[in-house]
Structures are given as C-alpha cells and as structure tokens.
Specification:
4 strands, single chain, elongated, 4-stranded mixed β-sheet, 5 helices
C-alpha cells in the first residue's frame, strides 16, 4: 500500500503552471505533447500549443527538464481524462499539521509539534484568545 499524500503527477496547464510558480516542491520533469502536422490551421490547437510552450519556457527558466512526447504516450501516462497536453512529475506532497499551522498564524508564536505536558493548556488558551481577537464568541 503506497504511503504519503501522493501528488507526484500533476496534469493540466493551470495545475502544472501553479506547481512551477509555487516553487514549494521539486519538479523532476515536465512532459509536453508534440504537435502533429494535422493540427496545422486549427485555432484551438494553436492556442493550446502556445499555452504549453509558455509552460515549457517557464520550466526551462526554472531549470526543470522538459521532454516532448507523443500525444498517445502522454494520454497513456495521464490519470485524468484531459491532461491538456502537459503533465509534470514532482516530489510527493508533504503532510502539514494544520492545527499547529493555524495556531501559529493566529497567535504569531512558534508552536512545538510535541509540547511538554503543561503546554497544551497554554496552547488552548492562546487559541481562545486569538479566536476572540478575530471576533468569534466560541470555538
């Protein structure tokens, strides 16, 4: 059974662009569908090709390898129905402790993931104070 959150494969123009721009995970490779001779003169295909060219250029600027593959190869690798001619291979998503992140953002203080036995009560009080500062009456 695979462990972790996944996210090693990102598909679609907007998703791949956001993955590259965010810079939070290492992107190992971007795969872009090759153009076919039968696509010449089709405005919809030309527009998609330009968008994919922009993504390929962004990837190269970020020193991410870009590989052109056949549409059939890209379709066979895709996990979605419409990868839009672009797919990225990246490091898996890292889990985030949302309780600690929320508490840190609300209180402005660093919170240890494994507080000493006396600290949880203080963290709860910090959360209540922060909650009231935001205008909430109850948790």
């Amino acid at each position: 059974m695979p462990r972790g959150l996944g996210g090693e494969q990102v598909e679609g123009r907007q998703a791949v662009r956001e993955l590259l721009l965010a810079g939070r995970r290492r992107v190992r490779e971007v795969l872009v569908a090759e153009r076919r001779a039968t696509d010449e003169g089709r405005d919809d295909v030309a527009e998609a090709a330009l968008a994919n060219d922009d993504i390929a250029e962004l990837a190269r600027d970020l020193r991410v390898p870009v590989r052109a593959v056949s549409r059939g190869r890209l379709a066979s690798m895709a996990r979605s129905e419409a990868p839009q001619g672009v797919l990225a291979l990246a490091d898996a998503l890292e889990p985030v402790d949302l309780d600690l992140r929320l508490l840190r953002e609300m209180t402005g203080r660093h919170v240890h993931p494994h507080p000493a036995s006396a600290e949880p009560r203080h963290h709860a009080c910090d959360l209540v104070r922060a909650d009231r500062r935001l205008g909430f009456d109850a948790l």
